[in-house]
Structure formats: C-alpha cells, structure tokens
Amino acid sequence: MERGETQNIEYKQAWRDEYLKWICGFANAKGGHIYIGIDDNGNIIGVDNHKKLMEDIPNKSVNHLGVVVDVNLHAAEGKNYLEIIVPISNVPIAYHGVYHYRSGSTKQELKGIALQNLLLNKMGKKWEDMAVEGITFSDLNGNSIQKFIIKAIEKDRIPPNTLKIGKQTLFKNLGLLTEKGQLTNAAVLLFGKNLIKVSVTASFKIGRFGKSSHDLLFQDIVETNIFEMADKVIEILKTKYLVRPISYKGLERMEPLEYPETALREAILNAIIHKDYSSTYTFLRVYDDRLLLWNPGTLPEELTIDKLKQEHSSYPRNRNIANAFFKAGYIESWGRGINKIIDACKEAGLPEPIIEEDQGGVSVIFLKDIYTEEILKTYNLESRHIKALLFIKENGRINNKQYQALFEISKRMVSYDLQMLVDRNFITKIGSTGKGTYYILQRGNKGVK
C-alpha cells in the first residue's frame, strides 16, 4: 500500500511525549491518524514496546489534553506498529497552554487572530456574526442600504415591499443582527460609514509599480463600505491605472479596458466577499505587463485551485456577506466565479489568469501577453514554433527566408509552420506572395486555438 503524510495522517518512527502536540493539532482540526513505527517515507520501522505504549498513550492523552484516543496494534513485514486514532474535538484543545492545529501536512501553533478564529469556530460562530458594541443604524450608510434594496428587488431576490418594512426586519432576514438585535461585523462591513470600528484592514489598497514590486510609483486606498467597494475600485482603475486601447469595429470606435472589465469586477468581488477580515489588507498591484490581486484567507478545505476551475459547490468564508451580494445580483451562488473570469479573459484574447494560494491568501494574476515562453508552452507548440513567435515579438516581423535561416529547415517546412501559426491565429500574414510577404503577431485575437 502506498503511504504518505497527508492532512489526516502523520508518521513517527518512535513515540515521544511531545507528540501529544500532534494529537492536540489533529483534535483541533479534522481529526486524523498518527502511526508510530513508520518513518516519513512510509517505511515500517516497527516498535518494540508496543504493549506499554498502548496503555501509556491513551492515558497521557486524557490527562494532558482531555482527548480520548484509540490506539490499535498492527503488524506488517514481521514488525509491529501502532495506529493512534484522534477524533475531532468539539471544544478547543490546548497542550500546556498552547493551541496546536493540523494544517496540510504540518502542525501550527495558533496565536492571535488564528487562535481567535479557532475559538469562534469551536463555538459554532464566525467572526462576521459577532456583535459590534456601541453601533446603531445611525452608524450605517442609508444610501448604501437603499441601493442594496433597489438592486435586490430588481433581481427579484427580496420582496417588493421591502422598501416599506423597517431596517430592523431587513437586517434580521439577512442574518446581520444577533439574537439580541445587535448589528454584526458583517452589517458594519457591508453598510458602515466607518469600517475601522470592526476591522482596521478592511481597506482595499491599489498600487502602480514599475519593473519590480519595490518600485511603487503611486497608490490609492479605497476605504468605503464593502458593498460600494467594487464599484469604487473599478472606477479608480479606469481613471488612473488602466489604459483603453482604441480600435474600430467598422465605423464604431471601440475602447475596452486592457483587461476585460467583467473579469476584473468578478475577481474584485470574490476578493472582497471571501476575504479574512480579521487579517490584513486586500492588495491590487498593477504592473506594465500584469495585474496581481491578492486577498488574505486560504481556500476552504473542501476546495483546491483545480477544483475551482471545475463544477463545484460554493463555500463562502463569510456566508452573510456573500448572501447580501447575491441578493443584490452582484454574484451567483453556484461557484462559477472563477470560470467567468477565465472565459472573459480568453474571449478578450488574453491568457488564462494564474490563480494560486500564496502567503496565506489567494492571488489572481491577469496577464496581457500570450507571447511569453511560459504561456506559449501551454498551447502544445513545438519549441521551434515558440522561438519563432518570440523572434517576431522582439523584431516585429518574420519572413520565410528569416524563418528558414533561423532553424535551418526546408522552405516547404517553413511554409507549413507559418501556415499552421496563421491557422491557429497566432500570427497574421501581410501580403499575398513574393519577397514582400511577412508575418506579424495577431495581437488581441480572441480565437487562438
């Protein structure tokens, strides 16, 4: 049987009492199995004192952690090894005053915000549901609330008579009030006049950079409530950060953004909705050749980056915040956001955005240019074709003679290569026949195959 450490499995060659920390970590997370007598590579080393350990480990787990574990004896390859089965704990577990948590294949010591979130989760609560002391409806933006109601009625997601009912009833129906009628963190984030009362890092930071991340040219901070935030961010991007290449469709002048607005808006909304608001800021970094959006908060355990691109259920970190955006028609609740971003970029002739987990958050990188070696390799091209496209990118054009000299291949093979690149919409042929014919990159093309 193939073995390997995973989210729920840990191997140890021999027992040490300090491994009670791992039992603590598994109990605070999703439970798991700890095998004693197996090395990190899954090789069975065996244990000699298994009878004593089968008695000691359960006792120490109860005495030090209050966790009841099962310890089972197994044998393979003529050697004995132990399996410790750790259940999920419904209450937070500490070992000598320190809270541990199993994440991926590592164990973490929880402190600060991470510990606060663990304690809330074990109590069946989320940060967005916590009451904000001293806040009343007068601290909320009435125009934002009115805008939400109108949009939600237009989308037929709240009753038409909502304009007539009181804010208390509306917010209760949206899950934005506690049982005692207090406004929650989510309510203030969505519609508050001053978000610093619930989160000093609720702002959205935008920066324009030069060649590197150290070369900050100018920046903006968007500090509005999060219901208005996406519109404000898009407005600033349009007026200050992004260009509008001019083209014509017949006589009609076309001025789309250099990145498709629908994709940008969807990504920005995702960042706002799924952000961990007990953590740091959301950052949008604009470079000459790319745009990088990062928000704090890892993916839920049910999802991976690959699963995001497939049909999947939605697992919002902030369910009441997500529900408000859904009611207003800003998002759908079917987990299609990432595919909408990818499809919009492809339709605009741009590469598929790079989506990855990074530094405790999720980043989406929008790229302008498909004509990079990294991107071109994804199109199943031969190395010769990639080198030819990069040659055109650097020199502006290529003709049959140059292509033939570049790779020392026959004129017939050159013609085949160039026609293939034309057919796949990577390049455009200028001229019909003869020495004056040359080829250029087909920029902004929507049909690269």
TrEMBL record:
Matches recorded under Pfam families: HATPase_c_4 (PF13749), SLFN_AlbA_2 (PF04326)
Alphabetized PANTHER family for the sequence: GLPR-RELATED TRANSCRIPTIONAL REPRESSOR, SCHLAFEN ALBA-2 DOMAIN-CONTAINING PROTEIN
Organism: Flavobacterium beibuense F44-8
SUPFAM superfamilies: Winged helix' DNA-binding domain (SSF46785)
Protein name: Schlafen AlbA-2 domain-containing protein
Signal peptide start-end: none
Domain Schlafen AlbA-2: 5-110
